[in-house]
């Protein structure tokens, strides 16, 4: 079994109608002040499970800085 990270990152059923646009606000709260955690299997660029990328949390921290 294989999966396509490229295709999974562009599914309208998961990422809304603007799935092809760069929108880092997807991971922020409605007021834009804090990061909201989602299922790690939803965005596979950082991998998931026991082999998750170690820098993932730092990346999300940088995303939330003004």
Percent strand equals under 5%
Relative helix content? 25-40%
Q: Note the overall shape.
A: flat
Distance between the termini: 41 Å
Name the average pLDDT.
78
Global structural class: mainly alpha
Number of beta strands: 0
Task: Describe the structure concisely.
The protein has 66 residues and is mainly alpha-helical. 26% of the residues lie in helices and 0% in strands. The protein has a domain at 22-66.
Structure description:
- This protein has 66 residues and is an all-alpha fold.
- It has a domain at 22-66.
- Helices cover 26% and strands 0% of the residues.
- The protein contains three helices and no strands.
- The longest helix has 9 residues, at 56-64.
- The protein is flat, with a radius of gyration of 13 Å.
- The termini are far apart.
- The model has no long low-confidence stretch (mean pLDDT 78).
Key phrases:
mainly alpha
Question: Would you spell out the secondary-structure blueprint of this structure?
Answer:
Layout: H1 5-8, H2 12-15, H3 56-64
